[in-house]
């Protein structure tokens, strides 16, 4: 399979001609390549850096940069995000099961790390790349192979181990290592692995997370930790709103986080948190459940038939996966964070978040986003059909099923039965034993609650 494109420099040639003297190329869809003389890091002679601003489908605007030196032939290609750091970090994971998966587009910013999990191989943050999974793995394997002769002479034991990794990587490229996973983790939130509307649960996953103080420092962002405003005994009083100072993850200006403990009838206590920044308009809402970890997970299945069902209260915890088979919708744990809303509100948020990713959130209008995107026609048709079904479900024009699978049993759906503590006829609730993978993901295998003092 060919790489997405051979070099970023060739991509610039493909998508836009050289700018005219007035800095434009003319035409309605104006595309400009800016050329800047810059010093070659190889021969220290003047070379040419070419910059091109473009949009990545499902993603956002990026700047493609290509440097070339006519004197020594040195060239360098990379990409940079056109905007600022995102409000949260992002981690993408793709499970490859067939050769077409190698064609998935990958944006790797200069702050992102890439890991091929089954190879136990991690690529540290470095030059930004616009490529696909095949190009990413090929580059890693070629880079490892480049220094093998030197390793053979100087460190034979390291040479043997690296040779094993190279052999396994080449088998993967030949289609002999399926399934395996690749993950891109970017604290700046500016990296990306392209999804596919046909992806099922566990195929493609995106998780957003709040940066740690260390990650903020590495990105050059200030970080001030929150202080708690509790009573003298350190207890939170139910139904009382607590406020404590924080720093906005978007602009790093001081802001306020509001926190309130609420009792959900026939469920448990939850903590609702809200952060709003008056400077940049950033808003963040989250719901955290407390209490002990139950012995089993819980699966809730609800059939949505009328507008009354759309108005049911629903709590989707951060550890909960969401599925709607009739809508071909699956949301992995951690994607939306914790949400306490209605069924309609939850679907609306999923729809809006997906639409912003697929049809470019920075477009002025929905029509402009659809006109300007560069999706293949068959792929765009699949997404249009998907959003049509989702819109019909939000409006109550289509019956569907919601399935919440929560290994921590921290999610809730309102019952309309005479006894609200029991499921109604449209809802089933079942407990299940957590898998080893879920236990490992939640850190329960390493948790020790008794006898830890002895350690």
Automatic annotation (TrEMBL):
Entry keywords, A to Z: Metal-binding, Nucleus, Repeat, Zinc, Zinc-finger
Domain Zinc finger ZPR1-type stretches: 38-195, 246-415
Major subcellular location class: nucleus
InterPro entries recorded: Znf_ZPR1 (IPR004457), ZPR1 (IPR040141), ZPR1_A/B_dom (IPR042451), ZPR1_jr_dom (IPR056180), ZPR1_Znf1/2 (IPR042452)
One Pfam short name: Zn_ribbon_ZPR1
Residue ranges, annotated region (Disordered): 414-455
Compositionally biased region (Acidic residues): 427-441
GO cellular component: nucleus
Family that this chain belongs to: Belongs to the ZPR1 family.
Name the record gives this protein: Zinc finger ZPR1-type domain-containing protein
